[in-house]
Amino acid sequence: MQPRLALTSNLVKLEPPALPLSSVRPTGKRKLYFSEKLVDPNDPQSATQFFITENGYAPVLFDPASMEPMVTVHQGEVEDWTIENRSRESHTFHIHRLHFIVVGAKGLRWEEPTLRDTVDVPAWDGFRSYPSVTVRLDFRDPTIVRTFPFHCHILQHLDGGMMGTVRIEPVPPPEPSSSKQR
């Protein structure tokens, strides 16, 4: 027989954030993009590799053994991430342990007050600019300090490497003030 866990003494009551996410000015902005490539470009039937990459870095397949996160932020921050699709099939951005609101799409301002953990990013048509959505991520929860994944929510794409991790670190301690005595 399994022992029952007593949860009453370990529960932490969380106060709602002081401001709704839609009225918080982001402390940072990032662009991530979905992309993919055939293992053998000469064989259209070869396997596809799937990537989610922070802009400015080369696409790499997710390595579950890696201890280094793709993104690092601090607890208490709020960031806007633009998720761009540079491939010719739709992708679905999903993040664990966190909710976001959509604040823009394809360069347009778009505020949707509904909290989400998943949003679709349409396929690129090959001609116009890459489709994108901008989401506001809330790292203010005091219990959020940890590492967790984000990825395309389409299982084949996730299994094919389209995943990353975000590490939320504690708020850095304040720098000691230099008190000079006269």
Blueprint (SSEs and pairs):
Layout: E1 28-38, E2 48-54, E3 71-74, E4 78-85, E5 91-95, E6 100-105, E7 108-116, E8 118-121, E9 132-138, E10 146-152, H1 155-159, E11 163-169
Parallel strand pairs: 1-4, 3-11
Antiparallel strand pairs: 1-2, 4-9, 5-8, 5-10, 6-7, 6-9, 10-11
Describe the structure.
With 182 residues, this protein is an all-beta fold. Helices cover 3% and strands 41% of the residues. The protein is built from one helix and eleven strands. The chain has one helix spanning 155-159; strands at 28-38, 48-54, 71-74, 78-85, 91-95, 100-105, 108-116, 118-121, 132-138, 146-152, 163-169. The protein has a six-stranded mixed sheet with strand order 2-1-4-9-6-7. The radius of gyration is 20 Å and the shape is globular. Mean pLDDT is 86; it is low at 1-14.
First CA to last CA: what distance? 70 Å
Q: Strand-and-helix sequence, N→C?
A: EEEEEEEEEEHE
Envelope shape: globular
As for the number of domains, it is 1
The CATH architecture classification is: Sandwich
Provide the spatial order of strands within the biggest beta sheet: 2-1-4-9-6-7
In short:
The protein has 182 residues and is mainly β. The chain contains 1 helix and 11 strands; from the N terminus they run E-E-E-E-E-E-E-E-E-E-H-E.
Key phrases:
single chain; 182 residues; mainly beta; Immunoglobulin-like; six-stranded mixed sheet; five-stranded mixed sheet; 1 helix; 11 strands; 3% helix; 41% strand; globular; disordered N terminus
